[in-house]
Amino acid sequence: MSYSHYEEAENPPDRRKYIFALAMIVVGISFFSTLATANSYWQGFFYSPFYTTNVFTDSATPAWQVGLRPEDRVVMVAGQRIDQLQLLTVKAGLAGKSLNLVYELGRVLTAIDVNIQVLDWSRYFEKNAPFLLASLSLIWIGVITRKSPLLLRIFCTLSGVALGIAPNYYLANGCGLESGLETQCLLSGKWSTYLYNPLWSVTVAIGLCWYLSELVEKKRWRLWAQGLVLLALLISLAGFLQASIISANYNNPDYVVWQSRGEFWFLWGSLLVLALMRVWRRKRQREWGLLTVACLLVFTGGFIFVTVFDIVIIGLGQQWYTLALPLYFQINMRR
Fold it and tell me: TM spans, by residue (predicted)?
């Protein structure tokens, strides 16, 4: 064996910079995709691929003021398909006219007129900045830390990437149709449509595997438990794919919404339970452990829960609760 091979074995190449660069590229694409919304004509509500109006459409937005609420699905714009939303918004804004929307909640169709405005930079940064700050912090913590367990570092880094994709999913321009597998949605800016939810599923599954590695001492039982988590993940991903196909066939987002809400209770509920179990096991560091559980609970309740179940909360916007997650990982990395 040559000297170079010995040197490589003793000093393995540091691939963290490549992981960091790849994560930053994904987050950068998401952030810059939202720039098109700032200082441009705006229809008055934020939308995501499956329920077009989401919880970021708060009481200060024009659509809210004329009656549009989270979970309302905009199905037609000025008599045309929803995938023409952005084009028709710009045309109405240039002409100084309002935009006629037909939306449904349940099976009730209602028409409303929304005044077209320019989305100012202050609103843009108020929605996007917390995502960007939390995402960059998580990626940095996950990549730069050396001594923490590998599963914890992967859990942290993927959480940062998922939060970095969130602005594209919730805030960026693009097709707001209950899209199923329709390609025009993917080509119109919402490239995160079929990536955002599965990425969170994978991320939480890795988090569960890390907690199991901390809690289960016997290797055989630990591997069995982690194997069950991976099996549940595969079932979850298959369920999401099936729900997406059904949504495409019936042009109805309910199947994806029900799947994501059912998955929430299992994945995130299990994560919180294991976090509490870890606190109970580590009596000497219980105060720090309770703080990590509190941070995880703030993030899960303030951001994940309200966005999955379309619940409007009073006070800070949902995006600000994402800042609890970097603190959760920072404490875990050091304890």
Answer: 20-42, 129-145, 150-171, 191-211, 223-245, 265-281, 288-305
SS3 27: helix
Give domain limits for the chain: 40-118, 121-334
Beta-ladder partners of 105? 108
State residue 335's pLDDT score: 64
Q: What pTM value is reported for the model? A: 0.87
- CATH topology classification for 40-118: Pdz3 Domain (2.30.42)
For residue 5, pLDDT over 70 is answered with no
Convert the pLDDT of each residue in 228-243 to its tens digit.
999 999 999 999 988 8
CB atoms closer than 10 angstroms to residue 133: 16
pLDDT at 185 over 70: no
Contacts 24+ apart (CB under 8 A), 188-194: 188/83, 188/86, 189/33, 189/36, 190/48, 190/49, 191/29, 191/33, 192/30, 192/49, 192/165, 192/168, 193/49, 193/169, 194/244
